[in-house]
Amino acid sequence: MFRHRRSEDDFAEEIRSHMELEADDLREEGLSPEEARCRARRTFGNVRAAQESFYLRGRWVWFDRLVRDLRFGLRSMRQSPGFTLTAVLTLALGIGANTAVFSVMNAVLLRSLPVVDPQRVVYLNTSATPNGTGTIGDHETFSWAVYNALRRSNGALSDLIAVGALSTDKIGIRIGAIPEQAEADMVSGNFFSGLGVRILHGRGFTPEDEAAGAPVLVLSYDYWTRRFNRDPSVLGTTIVVKGVPFTMAGIAARGFEGVDASRSTDFWIPLQNRAGFNVLGNPPENGKLYQADPTWWCLRLIGRLAPGVTRAQAVARLQPIFQSAARIGLGNPMPGEHPVVLSVEDARSFAGGYDQMYSRPLRMLMTMVGLVLLIALTNLIMLLMARNAARQREFSLRLALGARPAELLRQLMTESFLLVLLGGALAWAFAVLATRVLARWALIESSLAPDRTVLQFTCAVLAFSAIVLGVAPFRTAISGGAELALKTSAATAYTDAGKSRLGKTIVTLQMALCVVLLVGAGLLTRTLYNLRNIPLGMNTTGLIVFGLNPQSVHNQPELVHFYQDLQTRLRVLPGVESTTVSSTRLGSWWSNNSSFTIDGHDARTPDGAIALARMNDIGPGFFHTLEVPILLGREFTDADGASKHYVAVINELMAQRYFPNTSPLGHEVNGATVVGVVANHKYRAMDEAPIPMAWWDYAQGPGEGEMNVEMRVRGADPLAILPSVQKVVAQMDPNAPLIQPTLQRAQFETTISQQLLFARLSEFFGLLAVLLVATGLYGSLAYRVNRRTAEIGVRMAVGARRGQVVWMILRDSFVLTAIGVVLGIPLAMFVSRALGSSLYGVQPLDPLSYLLSVAGVGLVALVAGALPASRAASIDPLSALRTE
Amino acid sequence: MPTQPSDDRIALLQGTLDLLILRTLLFGPCHGQGVARSIQRQSEKVLFVDHGSLYLALQRLDDKKWIRARWGVSENNRRARFYELTAKGRAQLAEKTSEWNRLTEAMARILNAAVPQNEEV
């Protein structure tokens, strides 16, 4: 039964009653009333101890103490809101930055695919592709023939899964009447079952679906959410993919966004063997689709190791089968050709170069944020020590009243725990937000958000911080001892030179770290500036680009007619200055590279090897629209398209290299007559070096359906024209969405997105470090001035002038800064060497960056010193002395 | 200053206080001070009862429901908290008493046994 708990008051009442009864008895024994009362009290012993024991009886003592400590901690935090706010924000920024960068690192470098038993899932790689084949990735893609041979050889792998991309970017689909774009992959029938990806609603694919090329599709959870608002009734309805209706059969479990985490797949369809569904949307090579063409190495292969089979065993068993299958349809190897070699790698979410591309910058960033955290923690330690020195009287009083040092430590730990908890919560929110922004900057579509691994990491950092922040100020707290409570003067209460030495050391180290971070940030900012201002060789103002893949076009004349008609309609839209088309989109990382002939002879490099040039199929008015200067001759016109006389335009570099001292006009490149020479300009990426280029008239060449349309538009927001463009396109082809419409400038910037991201983050962390160091320096200087109030008072009383006092304080901070700079510069030189490969157009020992960093640190020291100094100078000598 | 027990008084062994309280209450309800006096008187002032421990012990027995407490008025008109045995407490008293007797008998047997002469080292 529940009984009402007896109160402490009731217990005290009983003891009082005991005293009275005892005194009564003693009086009866002959003592005086006064004596009786005293004796009763004396024989009872320690009343407080008894009450304390009664209070503690049956309680969770530690819990009780914890609650008390927490309450006390909260109270003392409320008493100094400025300190609390500074500490919590410092922690939030320091830990948040670490959490954010670690979660990106986790997502990119560590996280496995979200599948069942990911350690058993491997990507298949090849050392190379045989001569005479076409490929997408030199090492990552295989032919259909290889896939078929490997999947029939059971034993090594329990499942072999093939994935074929439908396009290099998005594909056109239609749900209802309006065309739109989506990311989709063709996958083998065992894709979901083999990977172990759960199907949330409906069904996944079966081998029969693959064999029949069934028109069914499975949506990703994310796309289902985004596009269909998680409506389960969409199952059974239709999406028209590239003009073919597909039935929605299932929805994949949440968190699975495909096997390439740098893009998120919207839906999957079974591998198709029909026209229009070739891998990458390529036109059939010699009339053969990928399944019939052993020279088209275009499928990504993912294997699940059979139970009990190691990776090495699996590779050993598959190797001979792979090497013979690789030769299917190719005949005998060329002399000296090495056989291709199969290997496997971890099926991490980010594969295919992303890890290499991001690994170095991410490790650098991790180091940077580690330094930031170090600065933040040392800052907090100084803050806490300063605050605890001010609380010395409180601690001494508690020691004098009987608190044990362990109890003081417990209280300090509780306070640090509270701070860290608050800071940690804020840090997590900060990290979630930051990763979202990061993903957008880095153009990574999949989630970089913190997961459980990141949470563990953050908790470890938090625990570390809590312990450091709890233990570090402990020595200061108990150093005063109990007797300090008896002293009255604040000035005499704190006279330990050792601690101020520690504070100076910390400030100096922070200054050094600050120099390092500022130099790093400076170098990367200059890199950023240089990258963004690389001359593209064209005018991108108002230039927009979008892709089109008209389903109504089936042959070359229809294609030309479609794009001519389209451009005629686009040119009359208000604000449009000019339009043109090109086959490969500029600034998309893709380029068409090929060998070529000059006047019938193979073009060769000076050392005799076959030379390569970049090529593109373009429409009339291309260079006019881009505003690329035409140096010689002319560009293509509509008349060229109608004629059978093949024409070419080449760039300056090709003209210089292959037609030295002569005009290239009238000569032939790949059998086409050169009619013009244009200035060098960027094609594939912003930071590429010029290479020889040739352009063909798309109206003359074997055209593909998909082209990119370039438009120059007047007005502040060129993209505002897109809805009217969409309307024009819809009138001509209801199944063709605008594919990735964007500003040409933005398109080019995607090719330096990694550098941009890295530089922006470094700037941010550099500034953060400066901010932290500034607050730290200010805090410690202000605290020291506060301690020296009496001394300053004396100095002023004996005739020191204000200027001298200000200089005394500032000198303090400048000396620390000078030492910090001297220590920091060699460290910064070391770090900037390591940064070398991430820099563009700036030397690692760039004097300007170093000068600015030193100036920046000096400024911080000046600002952080000025306030305490002016406060010191305004001390009234009389009142300062009176405190003594 | 708390009084030190004089040399001839013995501090109670752990656990014996509970037994003494139960035994004292066997003669009827009593308040804490009465219990303390009674133990000291009956032991002819050999045993020293720490009052703080006594009240905690009373509370402990109350929590175990071996005794129950209520506020009442003493013979000299003082408000006091009276304790009395419960049925459970009575049963415990019988059990603890026999336990104690067995313990003291065993102790006495060992302590009073004749020391063998030839085993001196």
Describe this structure in words.
The complex is a heterodimer of chains A (884) and B (121). By secondary structure, chain A is α+β, with helices and mostly antiparallel strands. Chain A is 50% helix and 15% strand. Chain A folds into 5 domains: 58 residues, no CATH class; 184 residues, no CATH class; 236 residues, no CATH class; 180 residues, no CATH class; 186 residues, no CATH class. In chain A, helix 1 packs antiparallel against helix 3 and helix 5 packs antiparallel against helix 14. The longest helix of chain A has 38 residues. The radius of gyration of chain A is 38 Å and the shape is elongated. Chain A starts with 7 loop residues before the first helix and ends with a helix. In chain A, 44% of the residues are buried. In chain B, the strands form 2 sheets. A 3-stranded antiparallel β-sheet of chain B has the order 2-5-4. In chain B, strands 1-3 form a two-stranded parallel ribbon. In chain B, helix 1 packs across helix 2. Chain B starts with 9 loop residues before the first strand and ends in a 9-residue tail after the last helix. The N terminus of chain B is likely disordered. Chains A and B meet through helix 1, helix 2 and helix 3 of A and helix 2, helix 3 and strand 5 of B.
